[in-house]
Amino acid sequence: MAIFSKTCEYAMRAVFYVAQRSHEGYKVGIKEIAGHINSPEPFLAKILQQLSRDGVILSTKGPNGGFYFDAASLNRPLADVVTAVDGDDIFTGCGLGLTYCSESNPCPLHEEFKKVRNQLTHMLHTTTIGKFNLGLIKGKFTLNK
Amino acid sequence: MAIFSKTCEYAMRAVFYVAQRSHEGYKVGIKEIAGHINSPEPFLAKILQQLSRDGVILSTKGPNGGFYFDAASLNRPLADVVTAVDGDDIFTGCGLGLTYCSESNPCPLHEEFKKVRNQLTHMLHTTTIGKFNLGLIKGKFTLNK
DNA sequence: ATGATAAAAGACAAAAATATCTTTTATTGA
DNA sequence: TCAATAAAAGATATTTTTGTCTTTTATCAT
Ligand code: FES
Ligand code: FES
């Protein structure tokens, strides 16, 4: 078990890749994305459809169509992607799986778990979708394998 | 999607409950545990069997039998429970799901994700199974619902 | 020894996550 | 208008997680 679901991992990888290509001025088809982030193509298509419905990513059909981001979207936090595909359990849920995480009726891990959760939340809110465009273009980061 | 799997959540809740009862001098049957941590009884049985096989929890069959911890086991880190049921992906895995998390070929999130992962690891290694015994007996913490 | 108790083990079932395939709709360019 | 392109949508399939049930084995008390 990893921290994020497969769905969420693919979503984040795809978003970073599309952001980079948008920065370079291109729209990207599902095939190209799947190839570059090493994900099953039809499954990824479903994930991007979801992100598109939620308005996180933009898309157009037809020749020269594909997925892309505009300037405003590039500034959205990665947290929006996570929420769209996995909901907000990861931001608010109890570490031991209690129905509600609360200060007044906490589980034993509450105080320490809250710190971890807050740091994760902070990371996902301060990381924008376009944050790694230059690094990706320079080849500093990898998104496949 | 929460951070831990259901299996792992039940395992941690069960372990804390059994630890408390061991501290009070009792062994606990699966029925009592399931009732107090609000988990499906047969499913929890499977989880505890796994922990028992891995030597994380102790058990004896027969009348007055049940699950329990000895003093040494009470000092083991909660991380051992997580590893036994979920493996160590959560301690070492890449946040974006790459096959290997590495410094030399990092994903974009690597630097920040590492911090989150390290804090989680630190929490699970410094929290012993018996750490909350007194708090639980005093009713400071909840393990059900 | 014997019967009662309680975990261990194994087979099975349901639900959710992951993955695939086919058809439809929108867009483009000729 | 028409053919080509590419995402959207819907139906279906597989795998993993989650959950249940039955039988077996070990232990205890009598
Ligand atoms: S109550 Fe469990 S993390 Fe807050
Ligand atoms: S490579 Fe992704 S977290 Fe280290």
Write down the secondary-structure element order of chain A.
HHHEEHHHHH
Strand content of chain A: under 5%
What ligands are attached or bound here?
FE2/S2 (inorganic) cluster
* Helix-strand category of chain A: mainly alpha
- The CATH architecture of the domain at 6-86 and 129-137 in chain A can be named as Orthogonal Bundle
Classify the fold: give the CATH topology of the domain at 6-86 and 129-137 in chain A: Arc Repressor Mutant, subunit A
The CATH fourth-level homologous superfamily of the domain at 6-86 and 129-137 in chain A: Winged helix-like DNA-binding domain superfamily/Winged helix DNA-binding domain
Largest interface: A-B, 47 and 47 residues
Largest sheet of chain A: 2 strands, antiparallel
Q: Give, in spatial order, the strands making up the sheet with the most strands of chain A.
A: 1-2
Q: Total number of helical segments of chain A?
A: 8
Helical amount of chain A: 40-55%
Mean pLDDT of chain A: 96
**Rg on CA atoms of chain A, Å:** 17 Å
Distance, first to last CA of chain A? 18 Å
Ranges of chain A with pLDDT <50 over ≥5 residues?
none
Task: Note the quaternary state here.
Answer: homodimer
What is the number of strand segments of chain A?
Answer: 2
Question: What gross morphology of chain A would you assign?
Answer: elongated
Please give the CATH class of the domain at 6-86 and 129-137 in chain A.
Mainly Alpha
